[in-house]
């Protein structure tokens, strides 16, 4: 028997790369293309496989997840529940949460599948980053620790304030991801929902899942699984994550799971008393004594009164559509570098002057980019948080397959006359029906939120009619 000839190093790698990039399957709409390469993006129950895929519309890599049902009767019994869960997940929108893009159901003679597309976190998990940092004999930067904690808590506060609240239930350093720019994103937010909806899904890979749970057992609160869990189990898990981020690793001392004693020792090793008190408040044994994510955002170790610079940056990002492109660059060019931008006067001592030359345009661009990416979230002082908008489940298949892209498309100015217009407000949605003189009618709609400053008509004018270039009101 002849032995196959071994390829040279570069040639072998190239062939392997071509093999992994081979398209195995396409989504019904043709946008998502599944590849051979398997990826690990957090331990999610019921997920049979997670493969790398390509978003052909945006040109970025995504994750193609599959849940397999070997019994079609079980799938049929759960179908409506599955659709409702995924429709709600598609409404979760936060800069520090891994994006859920799309889902569809695939029915075959022998089995049924649920396929869903999620954002691909190419830079790896927080656990991997901490291991690399420790391996290089480095310690955790306190400023970085504060930024990470703030971003994670911002995401948790958002999830817990949804209606109904979303409890993560599997928050570990393996399900938190860090990007190259310092942006933190929580993955596997659907874990708790999957446990309830997919109890009879494929059991393949349960051995690996069991090993992962044993390794991460110390992240789970004492009351986990004992009754109806609430936000407190996520706060306990966050406390362990915050502790691991500070000390880089909690030693298991050769055991399969980290002991309570190891957690106590790690907490006591923190030199900063505020950091120590912060993590201990999250790890209280009684669930009702643990603070909420919103409360923790205002803990003394994290909260700093936001400067005018940060407030202005958020205002600029939120209203960017009103400003011309490269407006920051153009403005900085027109200013006299020696001109005084701000001044503080003191009666008993010399004042302080801030000139335009003290502000670097490059640093300003980087800061604005960080704010846009969610690295510096602006916590509000109200007790409530943004709510995802509920979506009706009676979407047609054509609507389900339609994927919107943030890329603006060229639009033509509307020149037809409106003979009749009707406005309807229902379930936080404002719809405008326009009867045109050429008998081709239009329907415009937008989601609205309660505000004492903005009337529904004003909101519609600003957000829908303007974008459609139809001026009728």
Automatic annotation (TrEMBL):
Membrane-traversing stretches: none
UniProt keyword terms in alphabetical order: Cytoplasm, Neurogenesis, Phosphoprotein
SUPFAM superfamilies for this protein: Protein kinase-like (PK-like)
Keyword Ligase (UniProt): no
Record's keyword annotation contains Nucleotide-binding: no
Span of domain Protein kinase: 33-302
GO BP of this protein: nervous system development
Cellular compartment(s): Cytoplasm
Biased composition (Basic and acidic residues): 1-12
GO cellular component terms listed in the entry, alphabetical order: cytoplasm
Disordered: region residues: 1-48
One GO MF term attached to the UniProt entry: ATP binding
Matches recorded under Pfam families: PK_Tyr_Ser-Thr
Residue ranges, compositional bias (Acidic residues): 13-25
Role summary: May regulate apoptosis of neural progenitor cells during their differentiation.
Protein's recorded name: Nuclear receptor-binding protein 2
Species the sequence originates in: Mastacembelus armatus
